Every structure is written in C-alpha cells, then in structure tokens.
FHA domain-containing protein
Amino acid sequence: MGFLDAIERGLERAVNGAFAKTFRSGVEPVEIASALKRELDTSASVVSRDRILVPNRLTVRLAPADFQRLRRLGEPLLDELTSTVQSHARQSGYSFPGPVDLGFEPDEAMSTGMLDIQSDTEAGEVVWTAVVDIKGKRHQLRKGRTVIGRGSDADITVDDAGASRKHAEIVWDGTRAQVSDLGSTNGTTLNGRALGTALLEPDSIIDIGATRIVYRVLAQSKERRA
C-alpha cells in the first residue's frame, strides 16, 4: 500500500467513525462486501506479468453489537462474502496464495456502525465446496450425482410446474462439476444456451422451467472462523 493510499484509508476510517458515533447505524453485509473488495484492490501486489497476488486471510473487525448481530447469520453470510471476494478476484485477475479464510472479530474500541478489514497472506490446504443457490436458498453439493427436479425423489426439489420430475443433474468430483439435462420436457439452459451436457464454470447460471440456479465454488481452509 502506498503512502497516499494509507492517508486515504485513514481519512475514510475517521469519517466512518464520526458517522457511526453520530447515527449509531449498524454495519450491513453490503458494506462489508464493498470493504473486502476495496481491501483486495489496495493490497494487490504484481508478482509477474500475468500474476497479481492478493491476501487470502481476511478479518472483519466490528463493534461488539454489530459482531453479535451479524454472527447470528452464521455460515450463509460467511459463504456469501467469500463467494463475493472470489468473484471479485476472478474479475480483476487476482490470485490467492491459498484458500480464502474469512472471519469476524469483535473490537471493543470500535463504535457501532464502524468496520475495519485486516488482511494477511497465509498458505494452507484448500478445501473446495460446490453449492447451488436456488430462490434464496443455498444447497451444498455432495461428491457424485445430484439430481434437481420437481419430483419428491429428486435430491434437490424445486416447486416449478415447468420442471420435469428429474430435470437435470450435476456431477461434482470435488474439484470440477458437469451438468446434464435428463431428457426433460422443457429443456435446460446454461448461461442462456440450450444444454445437453457441459462442464460447469463458477458463477454459471442454469435455468430449468422458471427456476434459476446459480452454481458456485468456494475455496476455503479446513477451519472456518466465527
């Protein structure tokens, strides 16, 4: 981080601190997501022509009241923020030295509404987790075959009259995934194109009937912090 960057961040923290003391507004997840992306941008280091390294250990420091409130949202919030960080890194051409390790910590010195991001680089064993987001609900994919459809015998059931009982399947081997249409009546699309069988890339969009499915891959360390 350059000298001017440090000054800018110091001013930003001072302004945010004054705002928090005046209005006592709580920190919202969207503010954390923006701060995390900003941290990657300001901490990025050019290693070579085709590699820009960013920290993979990110700690969100919060006032105790904000910490307790956000902690109640649990793993889904951490997963969503981790996914946001990974997506921003992909879009920006950044590389992580290891799995993303994201956590919250309370700080008695901070006022409600304030947040601060601390980042560090830490190598570790990567654990890949594949999930699909369907109508606001997240489903973790197990290794092997996961069938999605309207029928009660599907592994993931969708309430959609336009979906077949066994509409599509995702096969996940722990690092990669493949999606296939199972001869459905109305067909399946992947990123807007008709699908037979195809490899899945992170953040791909699968449509069956009127149901949109977003496929994500989360790279995490074996131990997650609260």
Notes: The chain has two domains: 3-7+24-120, 126-221.
